[in-house]
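help with this record:
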Amino acid sequence: MPDLFTELVSSSDEASVFSDIFLSYTQIAIWTDQLSEEARTYSHSFKHFHGHFSVRQVLTPESMPHYLSEVLKHGEGREDLIQAISTLSEMFCYLFELESLGFRMQLLDRAMCPKFHRDYVPCRLVMTLKGQGTQWVDDQCAAEALGNDQYQGDFHQLNEGDIALLKGAGWLEMNQRV
């Protein structure tokens, strides 16, 4: 029998891993290290190109490439990053039968969410372009982590270039409507 981590987390270098999010026990599906070298080049120069950067939009997959072309400054690897993000938006919308998605891209100088919490969305797609990735805890540690601003216990972390689908608190509500 697989250990609890293996049951909760599905990880692969194949995009098909995203369908595992629909398994009742899977809490996070990770498509590992998906940044091309060209997209990685742009990502590593992002701060140089943009200084401060934060966008939030509701977009269709069809509008994503144009929108990103408008907001991202020119640089080596830009088109590859635009293509990668556009493809992910198509995949996400296809997977969840959505016409549009909430898109947020931000240059961070500190943790976006400085303490462990549970999202109140059905599912969130996260991709770290540079630096430390999203951290999460197993179910056994969740109660302690959620109630402790100074949690120092065990946690897991995405790597740069990993793309993850994470179930949120809204997952159950979404599935009850279906």
Notes: The chain has two domains: 1-32+109-178, 36-107. The chain has a mean pLDDT of 83. The two ends are 31 Å apart (CA to CA).
